[in-house]
Amino acid sequence: MCRSLSGADYSSWVVIPSAQFSIRSGQDDIAHYQASENFSKSFCKNCGSTISCVNDDKFPGHIYLAKGGITSEFDMPAQIQVFTEFKARWVTLDESIPVFN
Ligand SMILES: [Zn+2]
Asked: Ligand 1 centre from 31 Cα, in Å?
């Protein structure tokens, strides 16, 4: 589902507890798509950029923030790879990063 919703080979996310996240401004510019009972996506109404996802099947109580959309300086290398069973055939996993399926 992530591949089709993102339109990309794979996506990079920062996953944090939902209780530690809030949007301080711009709420009116955010649209939500409920893809399934436990999976939703938020995106910008103006440009379509992905903002976040919630996947209560995999990480209940957490929000995925689209890593590419974070514009502040930070250095956060990938820590786990998930949903690798759904990866495109042409994507090669980084064997130095643990897989969590
Ligand atoms: Zn936008």
From this structure: 11
Averaged over 1-11, what is the pLDDT? 76
**Residue that wins the pLDDT comparison between 4 and 27:** 27
Residue 85 Cα to ligand 1 midpoint, Å, equals: 31
Distance from the alpha carbon of residue 75 to the mean position of ligand 1, in angstroms? 23
- pLDDT reported for residue 2: 65
Q: Does the structure show a pLDDT above 90 at 63? A: yes
In order of 6, 35, 52, 84, 89, the CA distances from 81 in angstroms are 16, 22, 17, 7, 15
Residues within 5 Å of ion ligand 1, judged at the Cβ atom: 44, 46-47, 49
